[in-house]
Amino acid sequence: MSVDRLRTPEVDELLRALASIKNSDEAYALLQDLCTVREVQDMAQRLRVARMLAAGEHYSAIRQSTGASATTISRVSKALNYGADGYRTIIARLDDGPGER
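Above: the chain sequence. Below: its structure as tokens.
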């Protein structure tokens, strides 16, 4: 049996908090309170990299467009291809419609 060191009561509470977000304004406010500006920017960059990778963009184009390091692009690629499908699920939802902005 594999031990999931990430899944703790605190993380479960964070997940419940994220799942309770009703709109982009609430999400923005929580991110402002919970994360540093740099952390939010880094997460946004990783999502953009994931979208570009999923669309078949090459590393060099992604690096030039996003400013992401080769290491970041590689890590996102690994998560996109061998991870828990979080990126793919969210990318599909974002591509399905405009949603709340």
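The first helix runs from residue 9 to 19.
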